Amino acid sequence: MQLWWRHNKTDEAEVAHFIHQQLQTLGRQHGYRWMHQKCWMSGIVTDRETVRQLMRLLDGQGVDLRAHGRLRRRVYNSRGPNYVWHIDGYDTLKPYGICMNGCIDGFSRKMIWLEAYKTNNNPRVIAGYFIQAVADNRGCPQRIRIDHGTENTHIAEMQTFFRDTASAECVTLGPSTGNQRIERWWSTLRSQCIQFWMDHFEQLKEDGHFVDTFIDKSLIQFCFQHFIQEELDETVSAWNSHRIRPTHNPRAPSGRPSIMFAAPSLYGVHNFLHPVSEMKLSICQEECLFKDYPCDEDVFQLCVELMAEHNLVMPDDVYEITDLYLRLCELILQGLDLED
């Protein structure tokens, strides 16, 4: 192992360059453990101590700001993977038109899905996330934990349909604040990803480039939604493959979420996945809506036409995307002035 490490360890200057790049965007929210995980995911071979020291050197103020105390939490217990899925919406970017919805497995803490879209209130859209996850996992959980919102009506009915039992036995309803597993994960998502976008969009607002109109929200959705979804996917990938440290709660296993989810026997439990027939799955799919246009269809077509007319392309850098957003705002306002 030492020989492999000596021959494959990445040069420290390259590690520093990677961390510096990450710190220019949402990486400024990461602690050194999360940054170390992203290094490995990007093929950079280094150790945590090197990452910690480089982050202290490159972002000393950020390291100090991230230092905080810990709150005592209620003891949580789940019997095994797919015993309960916790489902909830996340509205921190909703004022800008980006609506998120996620689901986490209670035992392994593996994220089952995390989606950004133009709505998280349509029950048929939320049902689409659920049905896709059921299809991917070839079954449904024993229980789902949701709040009382109307956006969850379809998945509650589908879960009951899949389980062939009373809803009280397979659907747990309660306030979002009591949905412990997913609420805890939202704080991780905010610190590792979403805080950057909150600050970025707030700056657009302070600079007068976002005034909460239908057009502004639609353009945010058109320009940024796919990029944010890519960041969410990356965050989920890092989370599902990172190591959860042991806690004082003996009922909460430690390890990597993806492994705890896939190999429950290693932790002395079994998989509670409930098989779902293709017929039932097909019936429910007909009641779902799946993601299509990132924004209003008319605005989408208008943006595509304007980009073609002015030789604009969709960039892959957040600041270049911001320039595209500002340019499209300008072109649409010019068009409205001409009509007047």
Helix content: 40-55%
Distance between the termini: 72 Å
Rounded mean pLDDT is 90
CATH class of the largest domain: Alpha Beta
Strand content: 5-15%
Any idea what the CATH superfamily of the largest domain is called? Ribonuclease H-like superfamily/Ribonuclease H
Number of helices: 14
CATH architecture of the largest domain: 2-Layer Sandwich
Q: Could you spell the SSE succession in H and E letters?
A: HHHHHEEEHEHHEHHHHHH
Q: Could you describe the largest sheet, including whether it forms a barrel?
A: 5 strands, mixed
How would you characterize this protein structure?
The protein has two domains: 2-66; 84-285, Ribonuclease H-like superfamily/Ribonuclease H (Nucleotidyltransferase, domain 5, 2-Layer Sandwich). Helix 3 crosses helix 4 (48-58) and helix 4 (48-58) packs across helix 5. It has 340 residues and is of the alpha/beta class. The longest helix is centred in the C-terminal third of the chain and has 28 residues, at 214-241. It has helices at residues 2-8, 12-23, 32-41, 48-58, 60-66, 123-137, 153-163, 167-170, 180-206, 214-241, 257-262, 278-285, 297-309, 318-339, and strands spanning 84-90, 99-105, 111-117, 143-146, 171-173. It is built from 14 helices and five strands. A hairpin with an 8-residue loop joins strand 1 (84-90) and strand 2 (99-105). The N and C termini lie far apart (72 Å).
